Amino acid sequence: MNGQLIPTPDTIPVAWGWFQFLLLLTFPIHLLFMNAMMGSAGIAAFQHFKGGEANRKLAHFLAVFLPLLIAFTVNFGVAPLLFAQVLYGQFIYTSSILMGVFWILIIPILILAYFGAYLYDFRFEKLGKTGGWIISIVFVLFIIIAYFFTNNMLMMTLPDTFSAYFRHMNGTLLVSGHATFLPRYFHMIVGAIAVGGLYTALIGRLKAKSDPKLAAYAEAVGMKVFNSFTLISIVFGIWFLISQPKPVMMLFMSKNVLATAIFIPALILVPLMLVFSFRKKVIATTVVLTVLVFLMTFMRAFVRAGYLAKYFNLGRLKMVPEYSPMILFFVSLAGGLVVLVWMIRKAWQALQA
Amino acid sequence: MNYPVWYLPSIGGGFLIALIAVTHVFVSHFAVGGGLYLVFSEKKGLRENNPGILAFTKRHAKFFLLLTMVYGSITGVGIWFIVALVNPGGISLLIHNFVFGWATEWVFFLLEIAAAFVYFYTFGKMDDKTHVTIGWIYFISAWISLFLITGIVDVMLTPGAWAVHRNFWAGFFNPSFVPSVFFRTFIATMLAGAYGYLTASFTEDTAVKESMTRFSGKWTLVSLILAIPSGLWYVAVLPAHAHRLVAGQSPTIATALHWGFWAVAGLMAITLIAGIAKPSWNLKPVAMAAFVCAFLIVGSFEWTREASRRPFVINKVMYSNQILKRDVPALREKGFLNSARWVQIRKLTAENRMAAGKELFINQCYACHTIGGFNNSIIARAKSMSYTALAAYIEKIHKMRYFMPPFAGTPDEAKALAAFVAGKLNGKEIKEQRPAPDGTGSGKSLYEENCSGCHELSDLKEKTAGWEQIKIRAALDKLNKLAEGMPPYEGTPAEKDRLSVFLYSLNHGSPAEISVPDGKTVYETHCSPCHEVSGLAEKTADWDRAKIRAALDKLNELEDAMPPMKGTVQEKEALASYLNSLKGGRK
Does residue B340 share a domain with residue B307? Predict the structure, then answer.
């Protein structure tokens, strides 16, 4: 590979650290929503086919929230993708084009899944068993989208693969055969189902007063899913780690102080989280999991930088300073969050009443 | 040239953008106006204490949720995806320059979806005042999204001072920003009204149906009336080139505006007659027709806006093929192939010429031209052009047709591109021709080199049917006056003579059969008895051909003793060309 294929990046308006901060702030939120969305769709499909009153009730309960999760997954995906494009546009745009056909397919697939989720929710009773198939299709569509995302996010870190463009100019290149692809993909999918389980337990608490039986059942099912899938996810996580090229893996083993300083607490938090989850401490598990997702995202940033180190580091981006638009953004964000919290409170009060 | 090209030769990237963009723009504007419509509709229901209208509003809100949240928001992301695939250079520039504009828009997108959910799921469960406030939050968030995106999108059309110093605020508050915000706002409310009208036509309860039909009719009509002056204001601030394109120079814009005009007229008539005056006439087909008119208005506007930007993707900064305007002179000098990133051939040779031509096509033409696709196929566009004609045309393409970007490469690269298009795609012979010395190029080759880029032979045949050769010849002297936007023909008088004969022959047999008076013979017949050649050359040394030609019509006015010339118009033309050619020989 010659570095000649890597496009020249455009200039950035503020120091790259701001974008990295915003990327690492918003991406874990996207992941949490995405995990809840994908996991709860899978659990709803499983419960639906399992049959019986309690399972169907739980499936329907999860279905009501699914469109909301899709909307917020997409919304919280927009921000990190925006900031990632600012930092790594020359890689992301290129890898997206190289797999253009699959990348754009995400849009119709997502629309289909979204309508499917609404159909399943609004027509739950009428659909009967067909509903089980619909929610299963929705779940499969999510998995397909994840497959494309994993491909792109991996390919953007592999400029060595870019020259294959000249054999795939129609945008059909994938990197599923790369040594790290499968453990990465499975780690994300299995992890998402696990988090979907925790979400099920958590959201079930909304019914603690009106339907305590459903709340208890949601917790039982959810934590069972969380525990089992977290254990599988750990196996994939270890596979993912050891599949990394040695220079990247060594970043977490003292070669890079900050990367190591993130990796060690993450290692400690995993067993702690399992202790909480096996004891059905839903809130404590959620808190530790959230911290872990943030830490894993930070580690992911080190992996990305490690892969690209041969060609690029963020310090090489040229800056033409213009800070005032960033102030507009932070003021809007602060104001927006106040309004958001107010709306959620009002909605909560109205629905409780 | 900085990014790879996603190459789908028979489909084309522009088609994919249009596919997603057209419907997204429709739904997203509807999402803005619809928010306001919901608030007013709910307030009307509350004020009149009418459960029918409130039920109507809730039903409307449910559809709203499905259409705008699912289709609208995902296709919004879809536009971002597809534009990044098709024009990564352009989107990268806009993302990097306006990142905090986009990020702020994301905040309002978040508020918009949260408000839409709260509004729908708490309908009838929340106190009225708070519920209406949530509706307002939805509308204001959606409108601010429109406000922010308009600022960034309009930079592409009217970059103003941003094109020079890239200042965020100068770009955001660009010359067309304010009229565009007004125009889009009224288009948004018009769409909401048209949809309300459609929903009303499906309503069973006659009283509710009539009430909401009249309400929606007024809503649509007022929006349309307000949209017209803001649309004209928008057009008025366009840069000169874009203004000329909108004012009739671009045939596709003229077609779009034609459709837009009738759609506006149709929607006005329907809302006025079958909405406000006679709401009972709001039958389903009528409402569908109104909705189609609204869709055509949006389509007409978007087409005009996009097309008036050509040949740029960001006006005056970046051409549609992602080549920066400022880079073109260097690329013409140093060559495209050794400057671009995503090409395989760096050095052009006789052996790799076709392959290099293909790479040039992909990087410079494919942004707008497909190969054999239904959309602007280069095969069809260049079918009447020979290799040499095409090579010559490519070199001056932007000059001939403003809306095409200039070719950014060396003359040899232009020939390689011509060889690929004419030879590989259209099966024409690739034969180098020496430049024809003055007076030897055939009329046909002159046509191919100068006219075939824009005119098919059949078109010219039709156009000049019934014209005498002399009329054609005269037209060649004033092409830019025949049609706005047509460049003047810069050939010599002798070339114009031959071209006129060739064009005349299209309707009157072969050129060989058409006798053209020879200027020298005409001189010998009519002038030589009194005038030496050198004398006439001296006399007309400072005259241009037009002056010589004019003089031949009034010889007796030049000198009393001189008789008027009795030759035919063709003979006078030939003589004028001959006399004009004498100039320069006297030294």
Answer: no
